[in-house]
Amino acid sequence: MSTQQAKHIPRKMLVLSFTSLALIYTIMLIGVYITSSHQGLSCPDWPLCPNGLGIPAPKYHFEHLHRMLVIITSGLIIATAIYAHIKAKAVSTTAILAAVIVIIQIILGMIMIYSKLNALLVASHLATGILLFAMLLLTFISSYRERKNSLVN
């Protein structure tokens, strides 16, 4: 990549990619907690728990938090991909892949709930989440390196 292209990695791209990465990691931790505490079907409705966007009943707390963070994070991941495509083409491939994967991940999550936690779907949901984390990590690392290289040159 030429120095001219590298100079086009704005600081905002670093902030967007890091925030997406941090949020997806948080969602994964909450998801692991939900699974390990056997609360995976505590909220059988999809996409929202019975109280909708309101304050959840205590038995829905973690599942509700998980789903609300997914909504926010998905929007941020898609915004990061759009921003990368427009302003940071050097890192847009992994950002766009992350946006596609997050949509697949949401669909898998929905199917997983409707299937009453079918083991194969749960494993697929986890594997896709790890792939999503990897794409976001690569996007952040690439953004960081490209920006650092442009500032050095």
What does this entry look like structurally?
The chain has 153 residues and is mostly helical. It is built from five helices and no strands. The chain has helices at 3-6, 11-36, 61-87, 92-114, 119-152. Helix 2 runs antiparallel to helix 5 (119-152), helix 3 (61-87) packs antiparallel against helix 4 and helix 4 (92-114) runs antiparallel to helix 5 (119-152). The radius of gyration is 17 Å and the shape is elongated. It starts with a helix and ends with a helix. Mean pLDDT is 90; it is low at 1-6.
Provide a brief overview of the structure.
The protein is mainly alpha-helical and 153 residues long.
SSE arrangement:
Layout: H1 3-6, H2 11-36, H3 61-87, H4 92-114, H5 119-152
Features:
mainly alpha; 5 helices; elongated
SS element count, helices? 5
CA distance, first residue to last residue: 12 Å
Number of strands: 0
Structural class: mainly alpha
Q: How are helices and strands ordered from N to C?
A: HHHHH
Low-confidence stretches: 1-6
Helicity range: over 70%
- The best one-word shape is elongated
Largest sheet: none
Q: Mind telling me the C-alpha Rg?
A: 17 Å
Strand content: under 5%
Average of per-residue pLDDT values: 90
